[in-house]
Amino acid sequence: MEVEEKLIKKLGSGSLDFESYFSEKAMEMKASEIRELLKLVESSDVISLAGGLPAPETFPVETIKAITEEILKTHADKALQYGTTKGFTPLRLALAEWMEKRYGIPMSKVEIMMVAGSQQALDLIGRVFIDPGDIVVVEGPTYLAALNAFKYYDPEFLSIPMDDDGMIVDILEEKLKELKAEGKKVKFVYTVSTFQNPAGVTMSLKRRKRLIELAHEYDFLIVEDSPYSELRYSGKPIPPIKHFDDEGRVIYLGTFSKIFAPGFRLGWIAAHPHFIRKIEIAKQAVDLCANPFAQVIAWKYVADGHLDEHIPKIIEFYKPRRDAMFEALEEYMPEGVRWTKPDGGMFIWVTLPEGVDTKLMMEKAVAKGVAYVPGEAFFAYRDVKNTMRLNFTYVPEETIREGVKRLAEVIKEEIKALKG
Amino acid sequence: MEVEEKLIKKLGSGSLDFESYFSEKAMEMKASEIRELLKLVESSDVISLAGGLPAPETFPVETIKAITEEILKTHADKALQYGTTKGFTPLRLALAEWMEKRYGIPMSKVEIMMVAGSQQALDLIGRVFIDPGDIVVVEGPTYLAALNAFKYYDPEFLSIPMDDDGMIVDILEEKLKELKAEGKKVKFVYTVSTFQNPAGVTMSLKRRKRLIELAHEYDFLIVEDSPYSELRYSGKPIPPIKHFDDEGRVIYLGTFSKIFAPGFRLGWIAAHPHFIRKIEIAKQAVDLCANPFAQVIAWKYVADGHLDEHIPKIIEFYKPRRDAMFEALEEYMPEGVRWTKPDGGMFIWVTLPEGVDTKLMMEKAVAKGVAYVPGEAFFAYRDVKNTMRLNFTYVPEETIREGVKRLAEVIKEEIKALKG
């Protein structure tokens, strides 16, 4: 039989009942809607405000070239070999110093461990902390891929609404009181504290302090996911929640994806060594170690000061895009449409009048040549239908303006249809 | 308070009961004994035959330099950006072609997916296929990190003994009959089919074909882990089990760790697209995608023919080391000691007389200046005490000879003590 024929036969319907071999949990797994959605958009000439990608223009290619050349001369043995599960020690040390300098968090390398992007941190945290039924607090809306990562471990999500100052901590407190009365506890609160994905908002200083107090009072942990905090285009920096953590309750997640390049798949966990040790053991079984080649490159990037030099350049590149989106929203959006005004990050969150279903509206938008991410999937219980996430980092200003213009037209028609 | 003081306070005993936050499964997680062991050995002047590392001299540093320079010119946008979960399409295509050419397996890119080393493949396979209590067949001994990866998913291991022709498939058949009589089924058979880790043996052609027949007859899958098959120093190549798979029952795992560099943390799964699709969804929640930077480099490495050029060089480098270990074992080991005679790979498996406990003997060996891996942990039920794994790839010939000589002395004393 010819190779080609054999291949066709093998890939054909076949006799195996493939589904019958999957675990029960695998049967529940669903592909990320956003990723599926983006596949459709990719192949057309639609303006996509849907993505979550950094602009490739912000990747420091020349620096990477120089560093790579250097480390292949001086550190090839480390960069190309297996590494320890915790990560490349000089990089952990450099990150500890960087966090201390940048955020005023006293930090030692024993508190830092490297992971394959913060997505892996989310999965490992699920693995190490969540028992089925454990209560995990998330923001409403929250980072979709965090929901996906945690879901595998069967927590019960408690979704706390947000306003322009981030998670409404007073509402959390009420819920904590209720849970306490029922003899229940929260395992951890997950927050993207600064320039949140998807909402763009930042938790206020007052709420950060209050959240730490509540964590102590009601004995829960805080997972602070902070991929965007360095991308500040206006306003004053606020220290991370981790800054106020004297007990070791905060597990902080950092990533190189937005301040270096996502292609290195490199993030870090900063947490108490007791927690790091257990997460390290979990990671050992999962993939042995984070990419040593990328880690050695990242070490030079941080230790030689390239990171601090490069961040202002990313900010300079993104700020006009954010401003263009602000202006376009202001100019084109009809009455009844609201949006967040982030001081940084990558996303703006748009709320349409009640009754509009942005998921249903998506097809019309794509027909008009614009795409966004419907907000529904960002809510743990998918109970909000009239929101959407817009990205302003990937396409240039003029395209942003045109995209928002097209989107505004679709929304106007939708509102009209709703009233009519 | 000073930063230093704050740090000490934070890292001190503290008031948190850290253990109380861990999931039940996390409480069961144990660090890999081998990794812990190797930490001890690293810091002394002991000759370590314990490791499992490729020799850094085999890393094609100059090729990597040239490729990296090129792809940062031509493919920086792909290499530094997020990638799709399935992996970089040109690399998947190149691997499909390579496997077809090399192993005579008709293969399409839809059957290939990239992972962060084959360790991640093992974890994802556990996640996608194992329900608690599912029967997973392993070799006795088997790859330790596979046991660790699968264990999280609570399978029941069935350990099948091996001889010089690999897993004794007749014994497997008996067990399958017994299980069938009890109304039970095996979910999958896990085998490192060629130059096994830890035993070094290769499953014979006859047994490969019989295993595929049994898989059909008793309806189970086969996970064929094949990190070493390209490292053949003598004898004739045997096609992978996957070669005989007409139904899509074999999930084949490949890796760049032994034929390129482990520092890229890059492996691949070759399996029926039905299985690939589900594993892809599982991977999405776990870490989004394998390292695109490493993938683009690996693509050039395979597609431009460097892989095929480089494999003979690795073989040339390792063969004298294997031969040196064969000779030293022959020369120094006392009667009653047996070892495998691998045609390739990285390991030789040594069996001592009954009654010797290699784990207990380890301390004496280290005192004599040599280290090995006690065999116990490679058995699913830790029921064999008198075996050890020796690695011959990491240290040079003379060191191997000296290491084996020291080891033989320790063993002689141990046997003497046993008799006396």
UniProtKB/TrEMBL annotation, chains A, B:
What keywords sit in the KW lines? Aminotransferase, Pyridoxal phosphate, Transferase
Q: What species does this protein belong to?
A: Thermococcus piezophilus
Q: Which Gene3D superfamilies match?
A: Aspartate Aminotransferase, domain 1 (3.90.1150.10), Type I PLP-dependent aspartate aminotransferase-like (Major domain) (3.40.640.10)
Needed co-factor(s): pyridoxal 5'-phosphate
Q: Which PANTHER family match?
A: AMINOTRANSFERASE, KYNURENINE_ALPHA-AMINOADIPATE AMINOTRANSFERASE, MITOCHONDRIAL
GO biological process: what's one of them?
A: alpha-amino acid metabolic process
Q: Name one GO molecular function term.
A: pyridoxal phosphate binding
* InterPro entries to which the protein is assigned, alphabetical: Aminotransferase_I/II_large (IPR004839), Class-I_PLP-dep_aminotransf (IPR050859), PyrdxlP-dep_Trfase (IPR015424), PyrdxlP-dep_Trfase_major (IPR015421), PyrdxlP-dep_Trfase_small (IPR015422)
Q: Which family does it belong to?
A: Belongs to the class-I pyridoxal-phosphate-dependent aminotransferase family.
Asked if the record carries the keyword Transferase, the reply is yes
The upper taxonomy is: Archaea, Methanobacteriati, Methanobacteriota, Thermococci, Thermococcales
Q: Any idea where the Aminotransferase class I/classII large domain is?
A: 63-407
Q: What protein is this chain from?
A: Aminotransferase
| Description of how the protein assembles with itself and partners | Homodimer.
